[in-house]
From TrEMBL:
<dbReference type="InterPro" id="IPR041581">
    <property type="entry name" value="Glyoxalase_6"/>
</dbReference>
<dbReference type="InterPro" id="IPR029068">
    <property type="entry name" value="Glyas_Bleomycin-R_OHBP_Dase"/>
</dbReference>
<protein>
    <submittedName>
        <fullName>VOC family protein</fullName>
    </submittedName>
</protein>
<feature type="domain" description="Glyoxalase-like">
    <location>
        <begin position="14"/>
        <end position="122"/>
    </location>
</feature>
<dbReference type="Pfam" id="PF18029">
    <property type="entry name" value="Glyoxalase_6"/>
</dbReference>
């Protein structure tokens, strides 16, 4: 039985602060907790409706195990919002470039952007 869902996004140490700032400032996610792992690596966790999204890094490339590496296009986060148009204006005010935009017949919209580590985010919802 799964008791919780945590999404980990490993990023290179040099990109860590920019990635955390992107999720905190641009996407306006609420910080849940921050810390340093047993291997002296910083992490920053956001809570989104009972799901933890944690940005994790490794000093000097010392990730805890081989498959735990920066993804840079390896994941896509789909983020539902109340108004895509409003979010697009906010994203653009931070200098974020839209990569793709789709309008659906039912009024649904989706745009994609890239975080500082190269991960794809789809922002979707109604106009």
């Amino acid at each position: 039985m799964i008791s919780s869902l945590n999404i980990l996004i490993p990023v290179e140490y040099a990109q860590y602060a920019n990635v955390v700032d992107f999720y905190r400032s641009v996407l306006r996610l609420t910080t849940h907790s921050t810390g340093i792992s047993a291997q002296d690596n910083p992490w920053h966790s956001f809570l989104v409706r009972e799901i933890n999204l944690t940005i994790h890094t490794a000093r000097d490339g010392r990730f805890p195990y081989p498959e735990f590496r920066p993804t840079g296009h390896g994941i896509v986060l789909a983020i539902e919002v109340e108004s895509v148009d409003k979010e697009v204006k906010t994203l653009e005010s931070f200098g974020v470039t839209l990569r793709n935009s789709m309008d659906y017949a039912d009024g649904m919209k989706a745009v994609s952007v890239i975080d500082p580590a190269g991960n794809v985010l789809e922002i979707w919802g109604y106009a």
